[in-house]
Design a protein that fits this description.
This protein is α/β, with parallel strands linked by helices and about 210 residues long. The chain has one domain: Rossmann fold (3-Layer(aba) Sandwich). It has a seven-stranded mixed beta sheet. Strand 4, helix 7 and strand 5 form a beta-alpha-beta unit. About 40% of the residues are buried.
Amino acid sequence: MSKLAAENELSELGVSRETFDLLERYVSLLDDWRQRMNLIGPKEMDHIWTRHISDCAQLIPLIGHEKRIVDVGSGAGLPGLVLGCHAATTGGHVTLIESTGKKCAFLREVSTLLDLPVSVQNVRIESAKAESVDFITARALAPLPRLLDYTNPWLSQGATGLFFKGERWQQELTDAADCWTLSHETIPSRSSDTGVILKIEEAHRV
């Protein structure tokens, strides 16, 4: 997918031209920093718009405007910084939780240079203070049972979980059912034939 095609697809998701401009700057900074540290795989920049930016932007119409979001295990900022670029033009705030100091340095640099409404916490998820937010997000972080353990402090305060899951998502739901009762919706991924976004409205330990 070319950048122009990506812009058209993102426009269909409700991404404004102003947000797209911020995403372009984010991608440029990511390309610069990944040559100095292991932010994403060496070949991932070849597919950055399809495999990562457009994929993460699927959350934008689900989240809407002026929301408080926590992204756990933020890594290179996918989806946290993508949502931060959206919040910069529509309102809201995104908290990024990442345990690796070097990755936090990158997240803070991008947030500062792009003037994003983003804060970065350099802590393990288990040590983070869980405040009341609208949404909690995670991408490629952990199998669902463990992910629910990580995010329950926010879910139990009313946050809605939006979790990217790959082809094993049905098995992960089965595994989670041993310990959790879930109110959830599965949203087919626009960028993967086998992946979904799991929307968790409620999660209660069995």
